[in-house]
Amino acid sequence: MLLEYVFIAFIAIVCIQFMYYIPLFGSFAFSRQHTNPPSFNKPISVIICAKNEAKNLTKNIPTFIEQNYSDFELVLINDSSHDDTLNILEAFQKKQPSLIKIVNVAANEQFWGSKKYALTLGIKAASHEYLLFSDADCKPISKNWITEMAGNYSDSKELILGYGAYKKINKSFLNKIIRFETLITAVQYFSYAKIGIPYMGVGRNLAYTKDLFFANKGFVNHIKIKSGDDDLFVNQVATKKNTAICTSTNSFTISTPKTSFKNWIQQKRRHISTASHYKPLHKFLLGLYYSSQLLFWMLSAVLLLFLYNWQIVVGLFIFRNILLYLSVGISAKKINEKDLILFLPIYELFLILVQLFIFIKNLSSKPSHW
């Protein structure tokens, strides 16, 4: 009798997974990709916040300086660094005084360690209405990054969600997992935006207007939460009407990923803790997706262990993984992560277990932040 209930629950879980993989994720996977951005030539302020990023800034700032865009400035924020970050920023400014503006943020007891405070000062200092954000450990994939991202601005679109990729490292399972997790996250936030429920973006590649920022009082509503300068702000202000997505290859940024499981787990702990502050609908939809993933693997394992209706279970198992390959696999091709496609179910199962570990760990202790 118990196995019968497990079997019924398994069928229900597969149905829930179908709804996520085809109608929802399919809205992004099967959508047409625009290759040429709309014409946009208004001035842009590119904002990059750095804290102890001397080495990364030396490598990455030139790729922002070399952008093929007619009118832009670089607002470089030094967030109370104690390495050579400020000296490096000043050296770049000396070479490009008309292009680069430096915002040097001193330590502030009220906002100690808050990237949101530093970003707010940078946004206030920006000369232009249209803003584009990235991180010090990122660089644009092409010289047309500003053109591609800013091309999605319009009279109605004030918020643009981009893709921040991670560098590929050969023969590294951790690198595959990091990039798979980034892929799944992107598939989700692009898909939800496609159906009119935008809920997050990544600060590595994000654009919004000054008016949108100040009309919503910036980060005030979550200023006490150290993380979330990107996803919590998007969660607060994004709507069906004001949000656009940009997935052309030339619009991507790329970052160097973590190289140890310990550092990556710590990073993911911060991200997951931030998600607990999302709007109730978003938390429900994201929680249901993860729960259905976990239960799919658990229930299929139990049913196959006891060989209960195993032919049907195997058939549904295969069917559900076909859905995974269809939606996530096609999305992976779309955002140039094709090498992840072959072993999608393996990466998924491993990530589910890691997320379960992180969830339990966060219940017992708080993760550290910027």
Shape descriptor:
elongated
Distance between the termini: 51 Å
Whole-number mean pLDDT: 93
Radius of gyration: 22 Å
- Which spans have pLDDT < 50 for at least 5 consecutive residues? none
Task: Describe this entry's structure for a reader.
Helix 7 (173-194) packs across helix 13 (344-364) and helix 11 packs across helix 12. The protein is built from 13 helices and 10 strands. The longest helix has 26 residues, at 280-305. Helix content is 51%, strand content 12%. The chain is elongated and about 75 Å long. The N and C termini lie far apart (51 Å). The chain has 370 residues and is α/β, with parallel strands linked by helices. InterPro entries: Glyco_trans_2-like, Nucleotide-diphossugar_trans. Belongs to the glycosyltransferase 2 family. Residues 45-175 form the Glycosyltransferase 2-like domain.
